[in-house]
Design a protein that fits this description.
About 45% of the residues lie in helices and about 25% in strands. It has about 120 residues and is of the alpha+beta class.
Length: about 120
Amino acid sequence: MKRNEKGSTLIEVLVALALLGIISVLFLSSMANSTTARVTADTRVSAKILAESLIDDIKKQEYEPSYDITVPPEFYGYSANLTVQSMANGNIQKLIITIEHLDREVLTLESFKVER
């Protein structure tokens, strides 16, 4: 005997709601992960641009035992630490810039400056 069913049973509705909930949680967690990854990537790119800019500024200055660096105001929340190591009879300097964002180290960039 076949019954004509009209509508859904309570179990079917509960299963559909459970599946919808699981799919929603997976979607929202993937959105949160992608947002975190994007913010991290943006922070690293900004830190790299800042470090390269500071290195270029140092290379334009006269050869000195140490250099003053200033983080431009458009890099709010970033700070930079410079380490200068003298090498090869004092004719070459190894420049190490560490960039921090909100007190968390983001990037370290090394370069060299030669006295000419």
